[in-house]
Structure prediction request, 430 residues.
Amino acid sequence: MAGPDPDWITRQRLASARAMRNACSATHLSRHRPGFGWVVRPAPGSVLASPRVAEWNPEPDYFHHWVRDAAIVLKAVPLAIEADPAARGFWLQFIADFVNFALTTTDPNRKGPASNPLNLSARPGLQQYLRPDAELAALTGAAWLEEPRFAPDGGPDLERWSRPQDDGPALRASALMAVLDALPEAASPQAEALIARDIDHTLRTVGRASIGPWEEEPPRRTTFTLIAQWDTLSRAAGRLQRRELQDAADRLTELIQTAADTTTGGWRESLEAPEGRLDSSTCLAILHAGRSDGPFALNAPRTRATMAALEAQFDGLYPINRTTTATAIGRWTEDAYFDGNPWFPTTLGFASICYLIAAETGDMQALEKAEGWMALIEHVAPHPEGPLPEQFDRSTGAPTSCLDLTWSAAAFLEAADARDRALQAMAGAR
Prediction:
């Protein structure tokens, strides 16, 4: 498989920016869930994990505001502006609305409903999917910051889901700090208040067991969440001039070291995981942190070892890899969700890491690997110059699961930007 077509990258970059925009502050959309008798209209500042209307037949219903996904999308906003400069005004307003949406949904003085408002309207047989009254009634104070997702109108999630999750506030704080660095005109007292709220919550919950990024039970100390927390605390320590944040980050560094995997030389999925149990989310956390030195750097030995081991595992797992030169990357080898296929965010994430390594070190092999992954995405993208799905079939490469994942759009923008950096660095080194 040759490298990606530069013209396709240009067109897909614009398409991804527009797909991301369609899911952000999507006040033009509404979602009627007839089985629940529930109509939702997104509020300004919300981020739909997907704008598609689906009923799990078979496409999943992702018409929710996931805190983790929203943070990943927020961080890609400067790249969306670069891809579509005419949308700059929209995105600057979105950042302000995003901050207000997050402050409102996590207001410690807010109280959840005494009972689930869908109790009376849900069809018989669907009540089992409703969130228990006691959970909703207990929502107040810091409990709002433990929510993995909200209704996009800003209301609480009324469906059963795994809780608590601690990755979202940490990722949101680091993403907002990065966006304010890139777009100083977006700064505001409200943005600083949100960063402080998320940082304080991260400091309170650092290192505890929680639901991981793929929302699988049981709660555990996933390396993804721990690295996200470390990144946020260490970044905020200098920004806010708070020594206790750096102390907590240093303690977290020592804790994460216990996830070192002697079998592969990489990082285990969690502190509780057995030897050899790896997960691509660890690499995505390292990518989000974007460090050039230290134990969690993009080019650190354990980062490379984790990627190499996962690549070897997936290479023999997916039949599509017999016909491609690049290895399609999934989440983890035992994944069974929608048959456990390769994911766009993970495959693009691996490409981004290798592009950034090439940009930093001049490593031609890393560049070639990244180009192979980007060409694979071009090969399996369902509609040229359109939204990207969540997964592609492990045998055929056909789009599957959610067919318009906002995270995939953000991941493509990140990979295309990383590619630009690598090619510019390589050209400058000649």
Q: What stands out?
A: The radius of gyration is 21 Å. Residues 406-429 form the longest helix (24 residues). Strands lie at 31-33, 38-40, 65-66, 149-150, 391-392, 399-400. DSSP finds 14 helices and six strands in the chain.
